[in-house]
Amino acid sequence: MGGFFGVASKTGCTLELFYGVDYHSHLGTRRGGMATCGERGFQRAIHNIENSPFRTKFERDVDEMEGNLGIGCISDYEPQPLLVQSHLGSFAIATVGKINNMDELLKYVYENGNTHFQEMSGGQVNATELVAALICKKETITEGIRYVQEIVDGSMTILLMTKEGLYAARDRYGRTPMVIGKKDGAHCVSFESFAYINLGYSDCKELGPAEIVFITPDEIKTLSEPGDEMRICSFLWVYYGYPTSSYEGVNVEEMRYNCGSMLAKRDSGTVDPDIIAGVPDSGIAHAIGYANESKIPYARPFIKYTPTWPRSFMPQNQDQRNLIARMKLIPVKALIQNKKLLLIDDSIVRGTQLRETTDFLYQSGAKEVHIRPACPPLMYGCKYLNFSRSKSELDLITRRIIKDREGDQVSQEILDEYADPSSRRYEQMLEVIRKEQNFTSLRYHRLDDLEESIGISPCKLCTYCFNGKE
C-alpha cells in the first residue's frame, strides 16, 4: 500500500509536511520521502524506514529543508517522491497504486524515446518513474495525468508538485481516497482524512474518481471532472484505514462497529463465549461492535507490546513476520484460563499468525477459541493496491485448500462456489480451515453483510479480493 500528504502554503510548510506524512506511517514500512519547493528550488529526502519509524529518520531533514510547497509519502515499494526534469519543466512526483501492464508500458516508452530507467533491487523499474515518463509524453501535465489514468491497468493515484503548485489526481475508479483540507493561507491534500485535523485544517473537498485538481495556497482549480464509476477498496474500512479516517463519508471506526454487530447477529444463539476479544489493533473495533450487540463482555486477553513494537506492518521476510507477530502479543492468563473466547481478527490471509495466536490461548488455559474474521474469505490477490505481500494466490489459505481439494486446474465456476456462503463447497472449505487452525468454530463475515456495514452502494465498492469481480 502507501500513503501521501501535500501542502501548498503562503508560508513555510516543511513542519506540517513532516507531521502530515508521519500520520500515514500505518500504510507502509519500507520507504519514506519528502520533497519541498521554495526559494532554493526543489529539495528532497528519502530514507529506509524498515527498522526505524518515519519521524526518527526525518527529524534532521525538517531543519534543513525549506519551501512553501511540499509533497511526501510512505511507500511499501519504490523510493519516492522523485524529482524530474522534462520538457514540461521540473516537478516532484509521488504515486500510490499498482501497474499490472508494466512490461507493455515499458515497451511503449522505450519505442518512443526513453532510453533507460533506474533499476531498483530485484531488477524492477520504479513505477513512479514510469508514470513520470508517461506524463511527459504529452504536451501538458494535465493531459499526461489523464493519459496515465487511461492506460494503466490497475490503479494510479498521483501527487505532483511544480514550482507553481500541486497537481492531485485520484485513480481512475477511486480505489484509493484523496481529500483536501483548508485553512487561512494554505491547502493540503491527503490519503487519510484525519492527517490534517491537528495541523489546523478543516475538510474542504473529497476528490471523485479520476478527478484532477491544481492546488495553490489560495485556490483549488478543477482540471478534469470526476468520472461516474467508482470502485473504492472495501478492505480500507476492514483493515488498512486508521480509525479516525472517513472515506466517502463513512468513518472507519463506526464501520467496524457495524461489522462486529452484524457478525453477532449471524451468531445469535449458536455460540456462548464468556468474553469477546479483538486481535490488536484492527480487530478491536470489530470486537467492540460484536460485544455491544451480543451483550457479551469485551475483554483484552492479550495485549500488544507497543514500546518497541509500535508499528502495525511487518518485515518482508515471512519467518521474521511470524516471529514478530508472536513477540508483539502478550497473553493475560487471568483472562484466558478456563474461559470460552470469541476472537475477531480483520482477516485470515495465510493463517500462520492466527494459528499461533490460537495455540498460545490454549496453552494459557482457554477452553474454547471461536474465530470470526471481519471480512469474507480472501480468494484472490489484490490487482490494484498491493495490499498483500503474497507472491502467489496459493499463499492464501483458501486457495491452498481449494488446490488440495480440486487439483491444479480449477474453473471460475468452482471458485465462485467456494466464495458463495450458501454453497456446500464454501462450508467444506471453512471446516477444513477450522480443523487445520484448531478453532472451536469459524464463521466469516458475509460479503453482503460487509457491504451493508460500509453503507454505500455496493456498485461503488471494490470486492475483487473476495469474489474476483472487477
UniProtKB/TrEMBL annotation:
It comes from the Bacteria. Pfam families: GATase_7. Gene3D superfamilies: 3.40.50.2020, Glutamine Phosphoribosylpyrophosphate, subunit 1, domain 1 (3.60.20.10). Signal peptide: none annotated. Keywords: Glutamine amidotransferase, Glycosyltransferase, Purine biosynthesis, Transferase. PROSITE patterns: GATASE_TYPE_2. Residues 1-218 form the Glutamine amidotransferase type-2 domain. It is an enzyme of class 2 (transferase). CDD domains: PRTases_typeI. Pathway: Purine metabolism; IMP biosynthesis via de novo pathway; N(1)-(5-phospho-D-ribosyl)glycinamide from 5-phospho-alpha-D-ribose 1-diphosphate: step 1/2. Its EC number is 2.4.2.14. It catalyses: 5-phospho-beta-D-ribosylamine + L-glutamate + diphosphate = 5-phospho-alpha-D-ribose 1-diphosphate + L-glutamine + H2O. In the C-terminal section; belongs to the purine/pyrimidine phosphoribosyltransferase family. PANTHER family: AMIDOPHOSPHORIBOSYLTRANSFERASE. This is Amidophosphoribosyltransferase. It comes from Ruminococcus gauvreauii.
